[in-house]
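Sequence of Beta-galactosidase (Panicum virgatum).
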Amino acid sequence: MAATALLLSAAAVVLLCLAGGSRATNVTYDHRALVIDGVRRVLVSGSIHYPRSTPDMWPGLIQKAKDGGLDVIETYVFWDIHEPVRGQYDFEGRKDLAAFVKAVADAGLYVHLRIGPYVCAEWNYGGFPLWLHFIPGVKFRTDNEPFKAEMQRFTAKVVDTMKGAGLYASQGGPIILSQIENEYGNIDSAYGAAGKAYMRWAAGMAVSLDTGVPWVMCQQADAPDPLINTCNGFYCDGFTPNSAAKPKMWTENWSGWFLSFGGAVPYRPAEDLAFAVARFYQRGGTFQNYYMYHGGTNLDRSAGGPFIATSYDYDAPIDEYGLVRQPKWGHLRDVHKAIKLCEPALIATDPSYISLGQNAEAAVYKAGSVCAAFLANIDGQSDKTVTFNGKMYKLPAWSVSILPDCKNVVLNTAQINSQVTSSEMRYLESSTVASDGSFTTPELAVSGWSYAIEPVGITKDNALTKAGLMEQINTTADASDFLWYSTSITVKGDEPYLNGSQSNLLVSSLGHVLQVYVNGKIAGSAQGSASSSLISWQKSITLVPGKNKIDLLSATVGLSNYGAFFDLVGAGITGPVKLSGPNGALDLSSAQWTYQIGLRGEDLHLYDPSEASPEWVSSNAYPINQPLIWYKVSMII
Ligand code: GAL
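Predicted 3D structure, token representation.
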């Protein structure tokens, strides 16, 4: 009898332990902080977007984030990759959101799930699938029934997927926070009253999904209760939430910036980032998120636009390849440690501020026996010596000193103490590192180059002929970056737009890249830029008596992802396209044009190394005067 009782109680203990692994966590908030299981928390978060790396990279990235002192990993959810065709969902591989969230949980960290589903994020079309644009009557991000129905359906799908896997904190999972919409407050005035109605609807819809964890809206000063309005920016110490009952939270602290093709490589000094972080916690903040902590790579055709680069490195604490970036990563880790030493005081009380002279201030968190202080010099030029509690402290320009006991400085944000390791990039240094640190670099096994010819102009059977110039995105639905526009004219020899055999051809395009071919030969090319994608190309061309073919190749480099009505920003050759000479002009804008979506090489999957195609020619003699060529080489490392 006793033995049975013992066995039974042992079984009960095992059951309790198992249940304990997925014990529900209660997440609420008050005016100071997120409150997890009744305890206010000071949290440090960082963005890692799951599709910007590969699943085998996830555990390593998350571990480096944990080692860097992070408590929370933030990610957006990218609608277009999960629902490429309406109603057909894809959560496999790099798109396996639940696996990513579980990997974060395995490391013992929390998750902030920013569902959007508009995300901006330098992601193609802001994360919206293109098919959404073609839903009859749809108007994005406003009080529009077709749009709201789709947004609600996808948001509910994500929430249900997370619930199905038991991933909300309320179910014992890691998700402690969620976001709906994204920075709508920056642009909602362009949508008038309908925009406000939409914003309130989005908030209500999110809450109705009953996740059991708080929702936030970023950059939305009038986010309705119970949603928390949060700050995004390079500095957020001056931010105040819209209710005395909400905590001060920073959802995007830009650790660097994104790269555009043709733009400068962004850089944000570690000292400045550390200053911004310390100032935020000094001035009452309790949750901040690095955007990005690991930026990664815009794989496939996911980069937004126009002209967002493939690298999304972001000058983040973990670089594009998953290596820690020093001294940024190490210095921030030290800042996080210093802030965590202050946590007992930070959660116990509100700060009181003391002026330490011009451009210098102390914030003191003192409750009973705990006391933490932050001393800031917000003068960007001059160092200062200040007196605090009868002691002198030297504060370098633009710095914060952290005193977890109100007496001793454990860290000043302008002074980097963490060990600085420099890394060296070498070609193919992958294989052997000897005990003395020397590398054996293997020879690169490179196959010979092969090429495949891409024909100029229309080659597909399904080309479409129509009078007038068509906008590109509405024509391609972004199935390809490329759209051919082709027309022909017959020259007798005495046309008013001719000057001998010459004529001036003007092509006006919304962008992003243009190539002009006359009679199969390249006549010129032009491209826009990240700041303006508009193109006006003009050049003298030679025409021949009889039939002349004009082929225009227009390419997009990432669809717009930001701004009011960004979804309606067009691309491609919308005209005018005009020939002119000394005696007159010929406007081709309303001529008959034949359209071909995509290149032949795309149909043949020439971009896919796993597919062999008879098109490839292996040779060392490359064709000359052939304007469009695909090249291929294989490397074995
Ligand atoms: C923010 C936006 C992010 C990202 C960032 C710039 O305004 O919320 O999604 O686009 O700017 O990297």
